[in-house]
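protien #1 (seq + structre)
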Amino acid sequence: MLYYIGLKRKDLATLTIARPADLNRFLSACEPVSAGTENLRRIYINNYLMWLGSYGNLVLQKTGQATDNLMEQRRERLSPGRSTTGRRQNVYALGSISQQVVGNLRKTIGSRMQQATPDEVSQFAVFFSSLHRNDLWPKNKDRALRNELLIKLLLQTGGRVSELLAIKDTDLVTGKQMVQFARRHNDPDDPRKNNPTLKTYDRQLRLSRETWELLMEWLDVQDELTAHNPQAFLFVNLTRDPRYAGQPMSRMAVDQMIREVCVAAGIKPFGAHQLRHLYVRELAKLAREQGWTNEEWRKAATYLLGWSLTSKMPALYLGEAANQEADLQMKQLWTERGLEVE
């Protein structure tokens, strides 16, 4: 099962119809699916097998076949992952189904696009603002409109991708041209397996008039896609498949959107979270230029970025801005003294 999990559906269909005479040659000619698709398949298989194991335990207990030895073996094989302090991923028992199926997920597009220099991210923002959206996505005007709005919100609010994907129509404060980032864990209206949500506190952020008008333009399109549902999510899929049209977007779709802009700009692809870093750096630079006190900076950054009150991030970014300014002043001093800078 695991050997064939990376094959595309057409190749899997071929295997189910008739086993090729030269299986190894057939497999070497097959085109593999993306890392994200393979990971989803592994997770779905694992979830199904875990459910099947629980159901099997009930059947064995009801039929009187649940011997101690058999149940111990099933516990070892069907052991779910457990989280450990200081680690984000689960740890799976050796030899368990979970360890074999999802213990070593492949790196996805998002995980391969995490590293980017500040200059590259700034170049992205300049490039994006210099083009019309239809130049980047010429085949679908609605898609171009949605993508432009989402990227502008990332740049102007510094919001996390999960926070933007969790925005609903009801989160728009029309009279103030503001958007609310609302915390909703286990939202029953969200069909996504991993519901995007806020990490810390609710907050409202003001948008520029241009971005607000763009948002209103997108709402006309989104309203039709979601059948005028007032509880609909702001960012939804645009597809001809009726099963997915109007459904909320995924994180993977946002990273793909950023990747497309990076490729057009000739920049090494990076993850969407880098735009949040750009926002914080620009905010820290503004704070130093305006002469904010450390406390003023901490309060503003904590609210605008949705950090916890005990977060060390405000001090980290303010220190980074100070280091950059000190480096710039040192280079200027060397230049004035006739020393070679670079």
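ok now protien #2
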Amino acid sequence: MPPESIIAFLDFDGVTHPWREVEDFRCLPLFEDVVREFDQLRVVITSDWRTLYSLPKLRRRFSDDIQHRIVGTTPLILPKSGGNMYGLREREARQWMTQNAANDMQWLAIDDAPGNWPSRSRLLLTDFKRGFTVEDAERMRRMVEAMRDGHWRTDTASEAAYGTFWHQPVFSDGIE
């Protein structure tokens, strides 16, 4: 993976399609449109679907021109108690980054469950009733552009401690 890669950790239910509706991946084309705009974007699947299907089967959900950019799935961490559920997806993502020598890469998460991602500034939170929308696509573009262009900042002290409850990304050019 090129060192300038930006990783998008992607959930399925509530993102690629509304949660508890037909699993038709109706929102996936909109997400793929954004991926096509940025050569440096790579996708890692964080969805629970990774426990049911192999990576080759998961890749087949994506368009032919995007499949090679699906670079993996996060490892499964089994929590020892219910209290260990908070931030679980982010811990799995950080473990994937360590295992794949990607700790210095920029990343964002697209998910419908805020409790999965304590680093809120990197979370593009979707509405589980709607999935990934045009508004989400625009926010993703802004996030990736800022990361690519070196204008992305986060509160790293908060991230290191798993953050405050909610904080927004701050772009170094003052855009929020």
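The radius of gyration is 15 Å.
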